């Protein structure tokens, strides 16, 4: 193959056009590398230079050329130079791609695939059971929505999505519907001032049991009115006033039977503690039995840990004790809600802190149920500008104040995500960093236009489309039916996210598969994330919405991008050959780093990826060694903002095995008896941001491969953990 230097040497060629106009009228800078990529695919690398010169000669007097011009020029050049078979192949490929475009945007064709139970469609989401009627209905609607959505958006964006240059997330819902993505529900506003669902006017609750019941109804309705996750921020502090009403009622009742004030208080406190436990248990069961209109349990997160009163402490302890206990008769691990516990120096971090006992319970819970994940209070404030739980699994709002100067987090939302395929840019650059940045900048312009399209589409909603969001308080400020929904989005109140995947593979492409300790490689990959942020900052200034950099939780995208690039570039060792791409900035799952090595490697990236990030560490079974996990939490406190635990918690009810299920060709199974029946075993793996059950929800190949790889590489050097 011709060297990159030869390929990029164009000074002896005729004048190069300035702009290229796509078939939908989109104008972009003319790029010679795209001609070279086509020639590579036609296996004409040894003759590239004369071909490119012959093609460009046809544009000698043009500053702008169209897609049709280039198409004709290719055919003429190939025939003039005697490559008649290649000209026929080029025409054939062009016709094939046009047919593929028509098929991808034809609802009938996609519905036929769904009816045939194409695994790529029915298993796209690891927490959707495609055997359930309402899930099937949602998949059917989503199938139609995807094809129509592709036709709605600018053609060059739709084709970039289908090619795998970018990924336009949640295409089954948007842009066909002007829906929002994820949010922090303003439960305080709703529970304080009341709200309406359907025909019911709901007043402020008078007990914590009613408050949690109302929360479950709010979650179900919010989840059915958007397509992303929803979170209850600082839920212990949120629910404390309603538990106080329980206490006041019990104290009032005690006056009728008990004369001593201290005993009355003890009675009221004991009754209130039971009420709190029952209410939080009810919320856990409610969330896990809910189904939204999307045919799945709502992706819900509870953030807690900062409350200091006895009631707030009791809510924290109840959440953790209930999760440790497990669901149902078999005590299975609850998949939802995701639990996010906050560590704060001076509150619960050290043994001398007043809430340290709650932290100990959180550590125990994580060793047995993987959750809670951990937020480091001071680091989250540093990275995002204010403290708050993530929206759903890892999407973070940035600090924001209203016109009165009040910090606002609850009631804010994300408007959508577009993810760029970073490994593809590296593979197209063939080791040439200058070309890498040229392609990168072009993709950034594409992502910008896709994100702006997302924002403009969401702005077309009217309050009546989602009353729970816009009119009854979930998004904070309540709008009238005549108001513009943009009132809740503009001036950077809402975020819209530029996602990325495969930073590890980019490093591998330029520096080889063992680049983690290479300072130059690390600086290069960090520069990429910095440049993502620089683009987002520029777009934020231009449009006054908060464009944020988001480390994509690529559940099925790890597979989709890799498969597309393997078809395009073949099996590239340690990149496309391993069947998946690595999420965001994460350390390669096939390696064997200690938690400290992994976090040290990853800790620089979230500063520039503050719109969405999380770190995971791998551990063996920690049930007998919770102090090892606590040692990592303590060490990480001032280094990372958001930390998750991956530890084996699988349980076979047939033979009693507890630990790590074996990854096999047919899925995960008990290593002792081979059981893989979801009815008689509990197999729980982290599926990107949330937990998932791969036995009940079969995963796409790439994600399955990543989890299997991770399972084989569990870190077992617990002596090192104890030392540190």
From TrEMBL:
| Glycine radical domain location | 591-716
Q: Which PROSITE patterns match?
A: ATP_CONE, GLY_RADICAL_1, GLY_RADICAL_2
Glycine radical occurs at which residues? Answer: 689
Pfam entry (one):
NRDD
Q: Which GO terms describe its biological process?
A: 2'-deoxyribonucleotide biosynthetic process; DNA replication
Q: What InterPro entries has UniProt attached to this entry?
A: ATP-cone_dom, Form_AcTrfase_GR_CS, Gly_radical, NrdD
> A GO molecular-function term, please?
ATP binding
Query: What name does this protein carry?
Result: Anaerobic ribonucleoside triphosphate reductase
* One GO CC term on file: anaerobic ribonucleoside-triphosphate reductase complex
Which organism is this entry from? Liquorilactobacillus capillatus DSM 19910
> What are the UniProt keywords, alphabetically?
ATP-binding, Nucleotide-binding, Organic radical
* Residue stretches making up the ATP-cone domain: 18-102
């Amino acid at each position: 193959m011709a060297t990159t230097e030869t390929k990029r040497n164009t000074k002896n060629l005729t004048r190069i056009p300035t702009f290229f106009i796509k078939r939908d009228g989109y104008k972009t800078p003319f790029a010679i590398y795209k001609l070279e990529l086509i020639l590579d695919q036609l296996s004409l690398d040894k003759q590239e230079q004369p071909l490119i010169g012959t093609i460009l000669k046809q544009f000698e007097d043009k500053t702008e050329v169209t897609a049709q011009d280039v198409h004709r020029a290719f055919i003429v050049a190939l025939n003039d130079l005697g490559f008649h078979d290649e000209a026929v192949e080029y025409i054939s490929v062009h016709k094939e791609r046009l047919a593929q475009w028509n098929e991808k945007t034809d609802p009938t064709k996609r519905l036929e695939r769904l009816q045939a139970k194409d695994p790529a469609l029915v298993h796209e989401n690891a927490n959707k059971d495609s055997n359930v009627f309402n899930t099937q209905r949602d998949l059917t609607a989503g199938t139609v929505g995807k094809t129509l959505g592709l036709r709605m958006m600018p053609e060059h964006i739709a084709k970039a999505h289908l090619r795998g240059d970018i990924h336009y997330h949640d295409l089954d819902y948007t842009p066909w519907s002007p829906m929002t993505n994820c949010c922090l529900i303003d439960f305080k506003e709703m529970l304080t001032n009341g709200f309406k669902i359907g025909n019911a006017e709901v007043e402020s609750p008078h007990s914590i049991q009613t408050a949690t019941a109302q929360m479950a109804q709010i979650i179900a309705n919010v989840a059915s009115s958007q397509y992303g996750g929803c979170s209850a921020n600082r839920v212990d502090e949120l629910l404390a006033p309603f538990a106080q009403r329980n206490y006041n009622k019990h104290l009032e009742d005690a006056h009728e039977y008990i004369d001593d004030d201290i005993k009355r208080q003890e009675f009221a406190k004991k009754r209130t503690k039971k009420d709190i436990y029952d209410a939080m248990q009810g919320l856990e069961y409610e969330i896990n039995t809910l189904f939204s209109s999307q045919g799945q349990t709502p992706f819900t997160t509870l953030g807690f840990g900062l409350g200091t009163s006895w009631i707030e402490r009791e809510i924290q302890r109840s959440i953790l004790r209930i999760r440790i206990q497990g669901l149902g008769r078999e005590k299975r691990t609850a998949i939802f809600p995701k639990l996010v516990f906050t560590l704060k120096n001076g509150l619960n971090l050290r043994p001398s802190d007043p809430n340290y006992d709650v932290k100990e319970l959180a550590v125990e819970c994580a060793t047995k149920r993987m959750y809670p994940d951990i937020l480091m209070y001071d680091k989250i404030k540093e990275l995002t500008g204010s403290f708050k739980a993530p929206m759903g699994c890892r999407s973070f709002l940035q600090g924001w104040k209203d016109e009165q100067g009040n910090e606002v987090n609850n009631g804010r939302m994300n408007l959508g995500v577009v993810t760029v395929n970073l490994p593809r840019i590296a593979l197209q650059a063939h080791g040439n960093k200058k070309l890498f940045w040229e392609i990168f900048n072009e993709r950034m312009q594409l992502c910008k236009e896709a994100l702006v399209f997302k924002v403009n589409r969401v702005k077309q909603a009217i309050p009546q489309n989602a009353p729970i969001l816009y009119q009854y308080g979930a998004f904070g400020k309540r709008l009238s039916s005549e108001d513009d929904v943009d009132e809740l989005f503009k001036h950077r109140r809402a975020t819209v996210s530029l996602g990325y995947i495969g930073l590890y593979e980019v490093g591998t492409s330029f520096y080889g598969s063992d680049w983690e300790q290479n300072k130059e490689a690390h600086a290069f990959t960090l520069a990429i994330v910095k440049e993502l942020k620089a683009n987002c900052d520029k777009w934020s200034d231009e449009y006054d919405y908060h464009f944020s950099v988001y480390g994509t939780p690529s559940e099925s995208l790890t597979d989709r991008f890799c498969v597309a690039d393997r078809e395009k570039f073949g099996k590239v060792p340690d990149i496309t050959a391993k069947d998946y791409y690595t999420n965001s900035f994460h350390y390669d799952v096939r390696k064997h780093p200690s938690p400290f090595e992994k976090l040290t490697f990853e800790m620089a990236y979230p500063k520039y990826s503050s719109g969405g990030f999380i770190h995971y560490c791998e551990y063996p079974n920690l049930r007998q060694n919770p102090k090892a996990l606590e040692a990592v939490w303590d060490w990480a406190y001032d280094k990372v903002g958001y930390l998750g635990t991956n530890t084996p918690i699988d349980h076979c009810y047939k033979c009693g095995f507890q630990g790590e299920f074996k990854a096999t060709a047919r899925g995960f199974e008990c290593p002792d008896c081979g059981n893989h029946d979801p009815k008689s075993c509990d197999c729980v793996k982290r599926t990107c941001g949330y937990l998932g059950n791969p036995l009940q929800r079969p995963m796409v190949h790439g994600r399955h491969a990543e989890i299997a790889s991770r399972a084989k590489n569990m870190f077992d050097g617990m002596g090192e953990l104890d030392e540190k």
